[in-house]
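Database export, one record per block. Field names are fixed; values are copied verbatim from the stored entry.
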Amino acid sequence: MSGHIAIVGAGLVGAGWAIVFARSGHQVKVFDTSESIRSRLPDHLKASLEAMAAYELVSGVDDIMHRITVCASLADAVTGADYVQESVIERVDLKREVSAEIDHHLAQTAVVGSSTSGLPASSFTEDCRNRERFVVAHPVNPPHLVPVVEICPAPWTAPATVEKTRDLMQSVGQAPVVVTREIPGFILNRLQGALLDEAWSLFDQGYATAEDIDKTIKHGLGLRWSFMGPFETIDLNAPTGIDDYARRLGPMYVELAGGRRPAGPWSDDAVRRATEERRARLPQDQIDARRAWRDERLMALVASQKKLES
């Protein structure tokens, strides 16, 4: 790429994207409408990079910082960019407004990826002049530590846009997943939502505490899921592979699904009880510190995985 990368929206996700691209050698220009976010951003980025450096996930923190420029306007960030990562708040009206402004300043061959968690690109890019160059590029928060990116086109997104976005994400160390057509929630949040619905149902019916349900994932499924997915998991869990597993255990899962309570709104009582349980273990004023602990554990896990892969 001859141009720079533009980041529009510099909250937790946008800041993480700035690190993703800058650590890979790209010049990055960042804009956020909030002056306070813009003023705090350099310190936030440097602290994140220094923490990553402690786990040998990056080197040359100052060099990475020098590749990031905080801009005073969207036009300054987007003009001349090869790729734009939009990461504004998850509101259709706002994304439509911001997409139109990005579209106005978009370079002739530039592509725009949106960090939306569940909104289809068709809901906010239809009126863009260059709508064929807009696509969803949905990360997991924080994107500089969790590499998967879901790339999901609108009906009018050009195949070349999907390919260019996928190749860029691959080149900067992310793990791109192409969703072939629009579906609410894409892949990750549909999988996460199915697990959450069952977790809430089990908790609401009193089968286990929230802590023990979390423990089941943390010390059970999550250990395998940290390095392989559900299809590979079952492929390795039967003597001759996935078809063998389907024959042996498929009927059991059908029976479980048949007896499962239909998904519905999470009950107010269950939310209240789960909140009480969580706040008893983690007071509200300690959430930020625990979030920092989470990021530290992610860094350690990613560092360990990199060493195993090498």
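Remark 1: Residues 24 and 172 are 5 Å apart (CA to CA).
Remark 2: The beta strands are 4-8, 28-31, 68-70, 81-86, 111-114, 134-139, 148-153, 175-178.
End of record.
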